[in-house]
Sequence to fold (302 residues):
Amino acid sequence: MARDANSEDFIGPIRRLLVGLLVLVLFGVFVIWRIDNPRVEQFRAAAIDKVVPSFEWAMRPVTGMANLVSDFQSYSQLAAQNQDLRRELQQMKAWKEAALQLEQENAKLLGLNNVSLNPQLTYVTGVVITDSGSPFRQSVLVNVGTRDGIVDGWPTMDGIGLVGRIAGVGKSTSRVMLLTDTSSRIPVTIQPSGQKAILAGDNTLTPPLDFLENTDSIRPGDRVVSSGDGGVFPADLLVGQVALGVDQRLRVRLAADYQRLEFLRVLRAPPHEEITDPGGLLTPNTGFIGPVPLNALELADG
Fold:
């Protein structure tokens, strides 16, 4: 306890002395700062040069905070600009889609006017006015009919490939049965192998190929055209390309754009001979059933 009392008696006078010296120094600084004298002014300037730079470390947090605020403002501006660019990109995508649609329509119209076909084939161009309402678009209506000389069974094309055939004719409209319809069966040729097959509609946009002789010589991407067999379709009309389906069957990716059927070309196919008496192709009509004598055949040939 004696030591604590002696230490307090020793610290008290020192504390008072230090406080008095501090007050004296502050008063002296105040007085010197108030003196209007060139020498005192030089002394103040020198003191400021020595003291103020030493407070740079104290300004670093403030400077850092100011820089952080400035960076945040710049980030906000960049975020706003990014949003504007995204909106402009979406608009550009919409314009790009519209341009592609116009380009495809233009290509179709140019194809309807400039595509080179068999010179014996002429055509009538019609506008698609409605479809069957089915999600598979099995048939469509065009605004040409008997008044335009349309005949049932004629093939139809868009600006690129074969679409279907006329399956019903009215005075001013005709129905086109598409290649995708389940009732559609057309003979085709696969190039370059030259194999023949039947394109059978199955209500999909990639109908399968049936009755292939040798599938090993066929590759995806091979060209598929109409064969002309049976006289239903003219030969060498573009149908599409061979593709391998998910069911591992060889199918045809149709060249016609079934999603945008707007204009169709109805080809005036040349008339083919109608067979009214199939038996007459084998033997002449002799009036009896049985083997035909040789002299009868000679007479018929004569």
